[in-house]
Design brief:
This protein folds into 2 domains: about 160 residues, 3-Layer(bba) Sandwich (Glucose Oxidase, domain 1), CATH 3.50.30; about 210 residues, Class I glutamine amidotransferase (GATase) domain (Rossmann fold, 3-Layer(aba) Sandwich). The chain has 10 helices and 20 strands. The strands form 3 sheets. It has a 10-stranded mixed β-sheet, with helices on both faces. Strands 2-3-9-7-5-4-10 form a 7-stranded mixed β-barrel. α8 crosses α9. The longest helix has 16 residues.
């Protein structure tokens, strides 16, 4: 049964059908692009930051559904992008605002999507679709402006590769050789950063604290990392299933204990695997800027920005590895630490783009520790 849909066509726009792998269908109208695209459909609860969200490499290959009902009202602001292009496969919203208003804006969201060839659809009953995904879990879907046969579209949705077991991180980065990003101000330390699909604001957070960042491909062998004699190693965010990155996990296992290591998001999951944990695909993941997390060391609660569909399985955390943070929505693992190996990580995004600034202290702690290590050397 078809659900939702905006009454009446929009001038110059095409009707679009959204069909999930279980056959559920929704209709709307394009506000950017034409054609057909498939991917895993996920919802984000962020109220602002659609530009940062859609350019976040962790959303590579996913159809992003915004639960906030009005998207596009402040346009697109230069410098707010997290990567050079749109990473999401397509965008679903309840209502798109074609007339943006913001002093810093230079263009509309629809023009950015059109330029990147990304399909944008409005008029979707986003509440109904979100509830369906919460009940059934994130699933593959397809959007089409040409095909009207729901059975055909469902078959195409089911033919799309599952996110489970999918290695997206190995192909997403355009980095082929190391790139040095100098500290903003006096250099306090040097960090080797493994790029699995990094958000640009993460590097800015490190550099603003006095860290020079040597960005290297996520596939870099352990001996090449250590040959740079870094004060610390950073593991970035990225898309896909961490368990599919077997070589990356092997490389991390060879550097742990050699130098302090800090990971975020996919980097957290890869560190967990290197420490002996297991990961699993969550029903619908965490996507948004309002997730409460408890720091188990301090008792402090942080409101965090998150974007992930996989998690570390708590019951597989080995002896000697500490659970440091816990999600207060569903109790899932949000942080790990190994004192002996000087390695720690968090599942969420302390750079908070978009999102609250509660977790910036994690960058402070990382830079302070490796700067002190450098000073003692």
């Amino acid at each position: 049964m078809e659900q939702g849909g905006k009454v009446g066509p929009l001038a110059g726009r095409s009707r679009a059908l959204v069909v999930l792998e279980d056959g559920a269908s929704f209709s709307g109208w394009t506000f950017a692009g034409e054609g057909e695209v498939s991917g895993e459909v996920v919802f984000t609860t962020s109220m602002v930051g659609y530009q940062e969200t859609l350019t976040d490499p962790s959303y590579r290959g996913q159809i992003v559904l915004f639960t906030y009902p009005l998207i596009g009202n402040y346009g697109v602001i230069p410098g707010d992008e997290e990567s050079p292009k749109i990473q999401a496969a397509a965008v679903l919203v309840r209502e798109y605002t074609p007339y943006h208003s913001n002093w810093a804006s230079e263009r509309s969201l629809s023009s950015l999507l059109e330029e990147s060839g990304t399909l944008g659809v409005e008029g979707i009953d986003t509440r109904a679709l979100t509830r369906h995904l919460r009940d059934k879990g994130a699933m593959r879907g397809i959007i089409s402006t040409s095909e009207r046969d729901l059975k055909v579209l469902r078959e195409k949705a089911n033919a799309h590769p599952s996110m489970l077991g999918l290695d997206l991180a190995s192909s997403i980065t355009e980095l082929t050789e190391p790139v040095l990003l100098p500290a903003l101000g006096e250099e306090r330390c040097r960090v080797v950063a493994l790029d699995y699909g990094v958000k640009g604001s993460i590097y800015e957070e490190l550099r603003s604290r006095g860290a020079s960042v040597l960005a290297m491909p996520g596939s870099t062998p352990a001996d090449e990392m250590l040959a740079q004699n870094p004060d610390g190693i950073f593991l970035s965010n990225g898309p896909g299933d961490p368990a599919a990155l077997e070589k990356a996990v092997e490389n991390l296992g060879s550097v742990l204990g050699e130098t302090p290591t800090f990971g975020i998001c996919l980097g957290h999951q890869l560190l967990g695997l290197a420490l002996g944990c297991e990961t699993y695909k969550m029903p619908f993941g965490h996507h948004g800027a309002n997730h409460p997390v408890r720091n188990l060391r301090t008792g402090r609660i942080e409101i965090t920005s998150q974007n992930h569909g996989f998690s570390v399985r708590e019951e597989t955390i080995p002896e000697g590895v500490e659970l440091t943070h816990r999600n207060l929505y569903d109790g899932t693992v949000e942080g790990l630490a190994s004192r002996d190996l000087r390695a720690w990580s968090v599942q969420y995004h302390p750079e908070s783009s978009p999102g609250p600034r509660d977790s910036g202290y994690l960058f402070d702690e990382f830079v302070e520790e490796i700067s002190e290590k450098k000073a003692r050397a």
